[in-house]
Amino acid sequence: MSIQDWSNEIMVVELAEDPLFTDELASVMVRLREQPKHLVLNFSAVGFVNSANAARLLRLRKIAIEHKRRIVICDVDPQVWGVFMVMGLDKLFEHTDDMATALATLQMNLPNSARH
Fold first, then answer.
1. I need a labelling partner for 22 at 20 to 30 A (CA). Which of 39, 49, 87, 103 fits?
2. How far is it, in rounded angstroms, from Cα 110 to Cα 48?
3. What domain range includes position 48?
4. Which 3 state secondary structure label does DSSP give 102?
5. At what angle do helices 51-66 and 20-34 cross, to 10 degrees?
6. What's CA 95's distance to the chain center, in Å?
C-alpha cells in the first residue's frame, strides 16, 4: 500500500490485495481522523473484496462523512465491482474508471485556494 498526500486536501491510497487490504484501511482510518482529507482509493491491485474489507470501507466512509470529506474509488476490477453491487456499496461510494478522473472529480469541487 502507498498513501500519498496528493495535495493539501486530497490523499491517494493505492490498496493492495487482501490480507493487507483490511489492515491498510485501518491505517487510512487513523490518518483520516488525524488529518481529514478527501480520499481517492485506487483498487487496481485488488482482486477480491470480502465482508471484513466491506466493513472497513463502511467505517472509513463514516469517518469521511463526519469530517465532511469525500471518498472516490477508482480502477475497480469488474469482478470486484460485481461484489460492490451485490453488497450495495456501489450506491454508497463515488467511483470512476481511473485515477485521473477520480482526482479531477474531487479537485473540481475544491475552493480555488485549495486546488493543487
1. 103
2. 32
3. 2-114
4. helix
5. 10
6. 9
